[in-house]
């Protein structure tokens, strides 16, 4: 069951949306990713608070809380208006907890899902986003943030290794710290018959202190869609690489939605580098039904052996 309510208090707006999924999961007989002792763990809910004019100068404050079956996320975002020709600023505080199944999970159901093995990521970050004014089809975002990553088991206790003894952090302690400078550029062009999209991301770990992570991570996504009569063909290529310090959870996980479909997250492999190709053809069957034929493939480019715990992830 679900409920949604909007409450207006002056200029503030509170949106509440709560979904109860316990009966739905039971009826579908979905095997859980991990054991859950409390029925409350099977409740999905979200809470959103928005203020459009916090200090009387069109400053925007957004507070949101989301809870899934096995994860949660708290986000606070403050936006201050600036002239259109200047970069728009957004100050962000975020905390999330989620199971790490892409690297430390285990494949189940003939590799179609990835199950939890008791490794969870608790991330706390504070940062600033700068959205540059868009020019033609190009736009860019620059951000800098401090991030604290804490590894926990299902009981909420700190861990330094997974159940097989492989490390879960780069520092060797239960947590990693880093300051990350990120630059993302996007190109979008679309018309009635086709569209093109290109995204490039570069992340640089800044060595503020000696034990903080220093790395350079690059990722790109190129997508092209073409209308073929009543059908639509979509193809994309995703790739990336990371050099320098790397914790296992930073590796590129191959498999899952948005990667190689039909496999669980990370069930195909993981590595310091990756290359994933996706293609699909969507066509109408009748007025109410569409069909899809897709082909996905992915590779770690031989870099899987460079990820800590490589021996375990060779299925």
From TrEMBL:
Keywords: Membrane, Plastid, Plastid outer membrane
Protein name: Bacterial surface antigen (D15) domain-containing protein
InterPro entries listed in its UniProt record: Bac_surfAg_D15, D15-like
Location relative to the cell: Plastid, Chloroplast outer membrane
Ranges of residues in domain Bacterial surface antigen (D15): 53-308
Record organism: Hevea brasiliensis
GO biological process, alphabetically ordered: chloroplast organization; embryo development ending in seed dormancy
Highest taxon above the source species: Eukaryota
């Amino acid at each position: 069951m679900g409920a949604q309510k909007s409450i207006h208090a002056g200029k503030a707006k509170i949106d509440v949306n709560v979904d109860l999924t316990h009966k739905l999961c039971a009826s579908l007989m979905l095997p859980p990713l991990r054991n859950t002792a409390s029925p409350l763990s099977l409740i999905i809910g979200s809470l959103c608070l928005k203020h459009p004019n916090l200090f009387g100068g069109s400053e925007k404050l957004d507070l949101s809380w989301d809870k899934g079956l096995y994860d949660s996320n708290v986000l606070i975002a403050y936006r201050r208006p600036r002239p259109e020709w200047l970069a728009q600023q957004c100050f962000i505080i975020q905390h999330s907890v989620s199971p790490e199944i892409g690297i430390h999970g285990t494949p189940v159901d003939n590799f179609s899902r990835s199950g939890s093995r008791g490794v969870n990521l608790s991330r706390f970050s504070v940062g600033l986003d700068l959205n540059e004014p868009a020019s033609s089809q190009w736009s860019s975002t620059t951000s800098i943030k401090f991030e604290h990553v804490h590894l926990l088991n299902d009981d909420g206790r700190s861990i330094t290794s997974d159940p097989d003894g492989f490390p879960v952090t780069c520092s060797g302690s239960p947590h990693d710290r880093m300051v990350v400078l990120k630059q993302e550029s996007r190109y979008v062009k679309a018309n009635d018959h086709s569209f093109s999209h290109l995204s490039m991301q570069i992340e640089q770990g800044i060595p503020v202190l000696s034990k903080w992570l220093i790395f350079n991570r690059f990722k790109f996504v190129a997508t092209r869609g073409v209308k073929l009569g009543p059908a639509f063909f979509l193809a994309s290529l995703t790739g990336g690489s990371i050099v320098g310090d790397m914790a296992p959870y930073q590796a590129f996980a191959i498999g899952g939605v948005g990667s190689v479909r039909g496999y669980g997250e990370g069930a195909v492999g993981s590595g310091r580098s990756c290359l994933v190709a996706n293609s699909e053809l969507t066509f109408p069957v009748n007025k109410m039904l569409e069909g899809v034929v897709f082909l996905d493939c992915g590779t770690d480019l031989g870099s899987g052996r460079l990820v800590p715990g490589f021996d375990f992830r060779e299925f």
